[in-house]
Amino acid sequence: MADLDFIHEYIRAPLDTTGHTLVLLHGTGGNERDLLPLGRFLAPDAALLGVRGKVLEGGMPRFFRRLAEGVFDEEDLLFRTDELADFLRSASATYGFERDALIAVGYSNGANIAASILLKHTDVFAGALLFRPMVPFEPEQSAAKRATPVLLSAGEADVIVPAQSTKRLGELLDARGANVEIQWHRGGHGLMEPELQLAKMWFEQKFSK
Ligand code: MLT
Question: Which of 20, 64, 114, 129 has its CA 20 to 30 A from that of 101?
């Protein structure tokens, strides 16, 4: 059995119907259980895989180190990106979920590591819903292209994520072949009920069979 060296929680699809598995990636200070209710709301029939980031910042789990708010330790980020991509490949072998149907759902720091995987390992995710994401790193080399549906859900009044960074992330993903939609909402960095309804509709449009 592959070594599944991230703390995680895997919940099988209730009826084994859709074949999708949502990979749930929390924000700073969260854990593998935080986004399970959101995942179930977005996709009632999907399997769920909640993962806990390995880096601790003052005791708070994250997916990679940062030097300051919005300033990332790129060496650690790239290492953690590869590490999480490897974990997801191993988890698919262990739990038997379809790699082709893996959808990222990330919030804040979790959205940023998901974006980093999308930029660096185009084979891992078949789609992504990223809440309050920013550019994790500016890629230099070109990766294989994949027409992955990606939703970027952004807050117009977000004081942590500059609007320009969300737009730039959209461009970078677009250059990777992704089919990107950015939805702007009135709020700030926190999630709001109406945007979750819109995200659910987006997910159903893109992934209902
Ligand atoms: C956070 O607090 O998680 C930041 O806004 C995003 C990050 O550091 O990745």
Answer: 64
| Mean predicted confidence (pLDDT) in 42-61 | 97
99 DSSP 8-state letter: G
CA–CA–CA angle 29, 37, 61 (5° rounding):
15
183: β partners: 153
The catalytic residues are 108, 158, 189
pLDDT digits 0-9 by tens, 19-42: 899 999 999 999 999 999 999 999
Between the CA of 27 and the centroid of ligand 1 the distance, in Å, is 7
Exposure string (b/e) for 155-179, b if CB count within 10 Å is 16 or more? Answer: beebeebeeebbeebbebbeebebe
What ranges make up the beta strands (E) of the chain? 8-11, 21-25, 47-51, 55-57, 60-62, 66-68, 71-72, 102-107, 127-131, 149-155, 179-185
pLDDT band, residue 209 (cuts 50/70/90): low
Ligand 1 midpoint to CA 180 (Å):
21
Fold of 8-207: Rossmann fold (3.40.50)
pLDDT of 110 reads 98
Q: Which position has the token pair 């084994």?
A: 16
pTM value?
A: 0.96
What is the atom index within ligand 1 of the atom nearest the CA of 112?
9
Residues with CB under 6 A from ligand 1: 27-28, 66, 108-109, 112, 160
Q: Distance, CA 167 to ligand 1 centroid (Å)?
A: 17
For residue 190, list its beta bridge partners: none
